[in-house]
Write a structure and sequence with these properties.
single chain, about 120 residues, mainly alpha, 5 helices, about 0% strand, elongated
């Protein structure tokens, strides 16, 4: 019974957090998307204007954007999950973590309770 209640508490926390993040993204004037980060590769030539000896991070960025990743026959890209399925998996994992943490804290409280 307690485990079920703990899982429900975890689900409520997850849904609350997911709705708050979703509302913030919808109302935010400037949302940062992964496409914005990937557009850096199109401006790799601009990185060359700096001396590569000055910063190894710039050299790493130039190499990462200029060298294509080889596609081997055994290599396939990961399959994309639908958003609903991903949210269900995240909700299940999060609620499980909350339930296990609450059970562990309850156990510690019983073990280290002061004798009466």
């Amino acid at each position: 019974m307690r485990t079920t209640a703990d899982v429900c508490i975890g689900l409520i926390l997850f849904v609350t957090f997911a709705l708050a993040v979703g509302a913030y993204e919808r109302n935010s004037a400037a949302t940062h998307r992964l496409g914005g980060l990937l557009s850096i590769s199109s401006s790799a030539g601009e990185l060359l204007k700096f001396s590569l000896d000055d910063s190894p991070l710039i050299a790493a960025a130039v190499v990462a954007t200029a060298v294509p990743v080889p596609q081997a026959s055994g290599f396939t890209t990961p399959r994309q999950l639908p958003k609903g399925t991903a949210m269900l998996l995240l909700a299940g994992v999060f609620s499980g973590i909350v339930a296990l943490n609450l059970a562990f804290f309850r156990h510690l409280r019983r073990e280290y309770a002061s004798p009466r």
